[in-house]
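Limitations
The structure tokens in this dataset are predictions for the assembled complex, not deposited experimental models. Users should treat interface geometry with appropriate caution, especially where small molecules or nucleic acid strands are included. An illustrative entry is reproduced here so readers can see what is and is not provided.
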Amino acid sequence: MTGMVLPRLIRLFSRLLKWYLEELVFKLSEKGVAVQRYGNLVHTLLLTPLLVISAILVRRLPLVHRSPGWGLLRFAEWFFSERTFRRVLLPTIRDLQNEHIEALAEDRVWKARWVRLRGSMAFWSAVMAQVPVSVARKLYEFWKAAS
Amino acid sequence: MKPLPRLSGKETLILELLCNTTEMYGLEMVKVSRGRLKRGTIYVTLNRMEEKGYIDSYEGEDGKRLYKVTGHGSRVLAAWQAAGAVFAGVSI
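Predicted assembly:
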């Protein structure tokens, strides 16, 4: 969630900063040199903390994004056996990631979002279909070991 | 006597698709099947079929899993289709 919100906040913040700088240049050119000295001092006082905050935020901005399905992958790896993970859930997530990348490469952002949603739904369908099979297999193994 | 192998509708479709080509990806099968196979359940079915020995799979160079039909799988499909053809002519 933070990974999605933070870049948007930073983008908004940089837009505000840009607007502020444009206003500053406009006002200085409009009011002339007499006001410039006073204006410069006020603007420097305002601008410095803004620049410091923006620098901190930019440093926190993730340069490498996690591919979609990263969390699902971790969940599947933890919850299911190695075989089920490799044969059933990993291919489902790989399809989602490949289609997502293809859509982004074509600059089709909405298609990429749709692919992400559809891929997540496919993953949970696979989980729902696989859970009874895995549980039955485990029960059979326990029963066989006990008898 | 061994029990006769049974094939579900999806399994029959997958075997038919794989018999027509050499190898296929899971997603490729979904796209070719025109909605009869679903993204969410295709790999569950493929895994089950692999356990039964109908198909075989390996990981390709691009990391995607490729599926191909085994000799046992093609024989089961042929027997299933033959049985289907016989029962298609029977009227109750």
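Some entries come with short summary sentences. For this one: Chain B has one domain: 9-80.
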